[in-house]
User: Fold these one by one.
Assistant:
Number 1:
Amino acid sequence: MSNDAPTTEPERTRAPNIRDVARVAGVSYQTVSRVLNDSPSIRPETLARVRAAIDELGYRPNQAARALVTSRSRTIGVLASQTVHYGPATSIQAIEMAAREAGYRLSITNISSGDYASIKSGLDYLMSQSVEALVVIAPQVRVFEAINDLQVAVPYVTLESTGQNTQHSLWVDQVTGARLATRHLIDLGHEEIMHISGPQDWIEAEARMQGFLRELDDAELRTRAPILGDWTASFGYYAGLELLRYRDFTAVFCGNDQMALGFMHACREAGLDVPGDISVVGFDDIPEAAHFAPPLTTVRQNFAEIGRRSIELLLGELQGERDLSHEPVRPELVVRRSTGPRSGR
Amino acid sequence: MSNDAPTTEPERTRAPNIRDVARVAGVSYQTVSRVLNDSPSIRPETLARVRAAIDELGYRPNQAARALVTSRSRTIGVLASQTVHYGPATSIQAIEMAAREAGYRLSITNISSGDYASIKSGLDYLMSQSVEALVVIAPQVRVFEAINDLQVAVPYVTLESTGQNTQHSLWVDQVTGARLATRHLIDLGHEEIMHISGPQDWIEAEARMQGFLRELDDAELRTRAPILGDWTASFGYYAGLELLRYRDFTAVFCGNDQMALGFMHACREAGLDVPGDISVVGFDDIPEAAHFAPPLTTVRQNFAEIGRRSIELLLGELQGERDLSHEPVRPELVVRRSTGPRSGR
DNA sequence: AACGTGCGTGTGAACGTACACATGCATCCC
DNA sequence: GGGATGCATGTGTACGTTCACACGCACGTT
């Protein structure tokens, strides 16, 4: 009763810690810590002993303890929307790889709807993860409000398209991309050109629309109100059915490839030939675009590059770099078969 | 010199902790902890005071400290591949939402190539995050090896298609899905049917192929070696160009919608009509499939459901539930315009 | 009146790591 | 040969939280 034999079986199946490693290696735990953090002043022999002990025990540093004491979470937050689409998905994948390479992990949050409450709750969640930085791939207009309201104090990057707010944004020159697409249609002789845009609270959509309108303006062609879509093929289809009832245009510039696909579907149903009767241009160059019927002329964006650069920018800022200016990411026109000269009709 | 005035400005811009909250609320830190953990025995008045203090200070619990002391990371790992595709992306999104709802966060790792080293390193990374559970959306054959080699001790779920290994897998009845698709072609009178499958180390691809072969077998039709693809539209296109040189078949069942798209592209180039000359069936029902030319007959999978169920299963296992059997997720045939009766030729 | 019982709250550990500092020892220079 | 310098390693402490336990008090029971 007086002895509970406290020394027997003191270990459960607890994960080994830094002190266990030290004991096995015959050094102090601090030396082990030094090995883990690549301290320069370690004797090669000691280093080897510690390494051996780590392998023997299958030791893994406890990230929680490390985060606690350094007060660095080594986490980058991603506020995303529509991640099932090719563009965001590709960027996120590149972000994930770049972050992992730099020793950061990712915390991704999808906001289902684009309303303010949903954005705020997503942002709130990321903050509760104490992310060190933030990448926004979402409708940004409302995100900016939320970032202010929640007093987000970490560096963040959004994809911004006009090169104005270079402080927090990765400059993707979508205006030029849209101008390229529009110019291409104008060069083919089209004078009545429609635009089916993305949702207006996406800066990407807004910039593409601006590029479209400016290019038409420069060519002194008639501009008309773009249709506000939602990025989906279905929207492109139904918008097409509607628009083709009047058919007072000979070309369409779609805000992304999916909507272009839907639109071309509507053309087929209306008995119209693409590009014989109507030319169609998309945006993004998703891998499927080359296999649409007909293969789609579109504007290629290097989404992976965008993802990598985002992380580059954030990491720079985390390391206290001041000058965060950068070259814009430039899209590129890919001409395929969905565009042709304006029909003589 | 003797006084460094140690009491002045003791606080930097440190985040408030549980003790700061306690001080403001006039209670002990333990009481604050109880509020945070929804302890039942708290006087309503005290609760309100603590809540007010939390709001006033903008306090957020430190997850690292919490993880350290509870030795629970509240993280679920996702080992993924090809996340830019619709299916995985949709499942992951559902997983993310279900996990977040349950108070878990996600750690997603993409493996770029499917080789063993890459898988192992991805898995290793997830283990270093001390994930509590694991979802695998990747070529699984090699993943199983890696899981054994690394002695993964956490519950994990893979998408498995045959209902054999119900211990660790979510049963998605893709065999039946493939049989549905094949049956549909047979019912239309086709007797020479090709199959372009996914990569063989994906269990999904394997199961779809099995379903295809078995259904042909039951109908006593000739089976031939499927083409082993890589899920991409481009592969479907080039495979199509090759296959159509002989054209000793009247229907094709593709392992996913993208390959079907590419195949139909090849048909157009070869001057063949779908479904007039050749019927095509896909798999997955991506949102774009309804707008292909022609709209694609395919097998719908509820990817979101799969994602939710995965988490449900894992959470159950984490809470010590023993009986993890479940109903299989059943795919469903969606007949559109890419299939038709065998031509009389 | 003495006793257990429950509720609401407080006190002392412990989790595993990194940082600041201290120590022992060899080396160097004048 | 003695002090300064550098290297390799060890000791205390803090990070913010939860858990096990202890405490005081009001209540009902014996």
Number 2:
Amino acid sequence: MTKSAKTRKALLAAMGPYVLKYGLNTASLRPLAQAAGTSDRMLIYHFGSKDGLIAALIEHLAGELAMSLTTALPQEPATTVHDCAVEIVSLLRSEPYKAYMRVWLDIVSAAGQGNESHQRAGYLMIEGFLQWLQFRLPPDTPEPERAAKFVLTLVEGVMIMDSVGQTQTADVAVDALADLSASGKETS
Amino acid sequence: MTKSAKTRKALLAAMGPYVLKYGLNTASLRPLAQAAGTSDRMLIYHFGSKDGLIAALIEHLAGELAMSLTTALPQEPATTVHDCAVEIVSLLRSEPYKAYMRVWLDIVSAAGQGNESHQRAGYLMIEGFLQWLQFRLPPDTPEPERAAKFVLTLVEGVMIMDSVGQTQTADVAVDALADLSASGKETS
DNA sequence: CGAAATATGTAGCAGTCGCTACAGTATATA
DNA sequence: TATATACTGTAGCGACTGCTACATATTTCG
């Protein structure tokens, strides 16, 4: 790795916590630079533009998140789809994932407003998340890909509910999943 | 209604389309004023501050949306929970609702970053949405409140998927709902 | 060693931000 | 009609935005 690439990585690592704390959409160069112990001048130098920096930050944080998720839960997958959803929601509500989810909603919002870079990044993050989730489902799940998409979509809905204080609605929604998936199985 | 209240309403009505087009989080006084045919000076005069204006805009748009939703779908509720979800997703993906959903994600994002005014507004919008949704469910739905929360949470997830270009994932998720709810029913 | 490439600090530009002081006009009320 | 209240235009303040010109180090390498 070139030295310049190492510098970039170090800067991103230093700015990551700042973004997790204060968000992505309202971030500006000078505060970011201060968090990284450098100047706006140098951020532009290393990342070309603010857009380049933001894209690099998203990639960095997405990588961190993906890495962290692979070891965050017990090796064994869940025993029911409902348990799987509960497990994931509980995880994403805990630190440090909560902060990542806030940034995630920033990305989603900007993507919705037409920011193509954010949209691409968001698309890929969902892809990765689906991949990860697929192997956390019960091994006997009939159509794991389909089930993963279903669970992830529901979980994303939970993130929205949480962010506006509708935690209880989210809880009920996840709970209702138990009824549905239970009705498709024999009683144990 | 006082004359000043009428002016406020007219201004909000003029700024609404601008917000629907360009988003809420990146809006600033001067462009908003231009869209309303007035000046930033007057916006501050009528709404006290930018925060006051944004809050009023959210309330205005939320009212418009709620009003529009009451007549947007056939009088008869859906025949299955799955149909209900499909109906709503299809509606929210069409104009003009698509634009409202983009603003909705702006609100969600800002609420997640700690904006209490946005969070309150978002909380209430979910409440209203739940109320509306509850009476669009099949009349024989066992626990309509619970089902409404479940469907709405899933629909919110669909909104996220859509905004990052994962429309197909959202489609599969909604489709998977058919399997689940079907498995709990007799085959017709 | 000396030249070339890389890295960094200083200072500032042109633009936007929310907001306000000041002055003035229109409108309503007494 | 006189006075108070509501409204609105002009102009600008101080802070912040992304970014850049210029000069200066520091490092790398033939």
